[in-house]
Amino acid sequence: MSVDFAAVLADHRAAVDRVAALEEGIHAAVQRLRRVLDQGGRVFVCGNGGSAADAQHLASELTGRFVKDRPGYPVIALTTDTSALTAIGNDYGFEQIFARQLRSLARAGDLLVLISTSGNSPNLLAAAETAAALGVETLGLLGRDGGRLRRRVDQALVVEVEATARIQEAHILIIHLLCEAFEP
Prior knowledge:
Layout: H1 5-21, H2 23-38, E1 43-47, H3 50-63, E2 75-77, H4 82-92, H5 97-105, E3 111-116, H6 122-134, E4 137-143, E5 155-159, H7 164-180
Parallel strand pairs: 1-2, 1-3, 3-4, 4-5
Helix pairs in contact: 1-7, 3-7, 4-5, 5-6
């Protein structure tokens, strides 16, 4: 089987062009992040599968360093504690794995970043609902049409392409742009 790399790269460039069209929204997301962090809030990040890895990537770049040495920021990926994930999933259901952690850890003035290629994952929808009840702001990195999460977050950055891999590539680009904004 032969892969048409030219077509794959053309789809990738189209997804990057979608990110470029989100520049104003990305600047607004940076301001949202900066305000929350400057006011002593914390940032929580969650997603499923590849988006869980993206959540961890964002948290690691901001708590550690992206390119330059600088103080770390309080950013926590809700995808990393396997004991909590499996205990909550077992006792409350998979739909509650992020919401339950938020009820335990988050407070008004914090920010939740939800990463999803579809915008329809029940556990992310439950997390967004919990965040709203707690007074936690929400930012969605979404794909396709943004799904149901698009209407349930305070700000949505939607990469409007269909292919999951291209959405994930675009989400990593957005994550890196957010991190660039926190470089000294």
